[in-house]
Amino acid sequence: MKYRLLVLKRGLEDLLMFPLILLGRLIAARRPLQKEYRVFYFFPFYHTGGAEKIHALVVQTTASPDCIVYFTRKSHNETFLSAFQKAGCAIRDISRYTDNKWLYPVNIIFRGIISGYINRQKGKTVVFNGQCNFGYKLSPWINQEIKQIELIHSLNTFSYIRLPFLPFISQTVMISQVKIREHIELYKRFGVPGNLAERIRYIPNASDFDTISVDEKDLSSVRVFYSGRATPEKRPHLVTAIAKRVQEQDPSISFILAGDDFKALRSAETAFIDFAGNIKEKEKLHGLYRRSNVLLITSSTEGFPLAVIEGMAYGAAILATPVGDVPVHVQPGMNGFLFSTVTDEETIIQEATRWILELQKNKDLLRTISANNIAYAQANFTLRQFGEAYKKLIDA
Q: Do 80 and 201 lie in a common domain?
């Protein structure tokens, strides 16, 4: 079976790596940590991104001064670095050593160093891996009695990278019910033992949003918001295409794009769009959600976007592709509308244009959807529920 071959390959690679792992262990013994740590967190980045914000929230709701966070890849900016720092954990950015293909032996030595640190802890210790490749490669070198938890956001490259390391993972957290089913199907195709699928549990994402009422929303005119990175799967070019189509029919409808500079999308034809850039301050970003009343999600793939949660919390109607868990939480006509396709971009543009113009005309519908979404977010996506679930997982 494919799974057995992957495990065998990993085992052979571990044998070849052992001398460098041993060297790392010796370094760890000679230069030990100065204090005991209860939780070791491993994340790739702290730059702009929904996953990075969720990672910061996990740390904020579960951490204490006896925790340490390792970042293993070079971040493009420092958007969420301060959010991790506010949690009170020790912060270690080791990307200069672990994110350089020319220093790959050093990466392996660091696996020995850090596993040495973890294994030498005297008290109860937990390892938390948020889709971190280094964290998976580290996992075989950690003592079996130490709990290792992983967080998976979607079905992506990590879904395959992690397969030979599954025996070392005590609990798997996934944020999407749809993605759980897809991973179980993946396990079956690769011949992964059934008991490993039983370790998966569902914890939905959340956000630290303010509690508002629909009476606080300005629904006099539609204001469309997009928050996300300029990556291929997010497809922000569809947002500007929709904006231009809407602008031709109703110039009073406004559009705001945040999360990246979107240089490739700026032109004379998009001058009417407010490109807000990369926003680090939570209050400023949430202020944009407050002022908006329609949120666009044009992604080709997602687990469950954090933007949907924040859009709902601040009373925005959701117009989204039916990806990941979006159809679980967005009921057409109740919380917004779902496009009839993920792949046909022209259809997405046409449908979004039609619905935005309809909401501009039908303010009663816009108000109803806004009220529904505020209530739904407050019932399902609070930080209290989120924090309790992760604390229970880590402290068990």
A: yes
Predicted local confidence at residue 158, as pLDDT: 84
Estimate the share of the chain in helix, then strand, then coil, as percent rounded to the nearest 5. 50, 15, 35
For 123, the domain range is 2-206+383-395
H or E segment at 294? strand 294-297
Query: From CA 180, how far away is CA 133, in angstroms rounded?
Result: 20
> What contacts 49, CB < 8 A, 6 or more positions away?
79, 80, 229
Of 173, 172, 208, 206, residue with least CA distance to 86:
208
Question: Distance between CA atoms of 47 and 52, rounded to whole angstroms?
Answer: 7
Which pLDDT does position 63 carry in this prediction? 86
Domain count, the chain: 2
3-state SS class at 143: coil
Q: Which residues of the chain have pLDDT under 70?
A: none
Q: In sequence order, which ranges of the chain are alpha helices (DSSP H)?
A: 2-30, 50-62, 81-85, 95-98, 104-119, 133-138, 157-161, 177-190, 194-197, 236-249, 282-291, 306-313, 326-329, 345-361, 363-380, 383-395
> Is the domain of 274 the same as that of 328?
yes
Distance, CA of 130 to CA of 43 (rounded, Å): 5
The values of phi and psi at residue 159, to 5°, are: -60, -30
Same domain, 277 and 346: yes
- According to the model, what pLDDT value does residue 156 have? 85
Q: What is the pLDDT of residue 281?
A: 86
DSSP letter at 148 equals: E
Asked if residues 331 and 187 have their Cβ atoms less than 8 Å apart, the reply is no
pLDDT at position 157? 85
Question: Which CATH number goes with the domain that contains 373?
Answer: 3.40.50.2000
Phi-psi region of 127 (alpha: psi -120 to 50; beta: other; left: phi over 0): beta
- Which pLDDT score, from 0 to 100, does residue 337 have? 98
Distances (CA, A) of 387 to 3, 68, 129, 203, 301: 34, 18, 17, 10, 26
Find out whether 48 and 229 touch, Cβ atoms under 8 Å.
Answer: yes
CA 41 centroid distance within chain: 15
User: Are both 200 and 272 inside the same structural domain?
Assistant: no
What's residue 82's pLDDT?
92
Q: Checking phi first, is residue 324 left (phi over 0); if not, alpha (psi -120 to 50) or beta? A: left
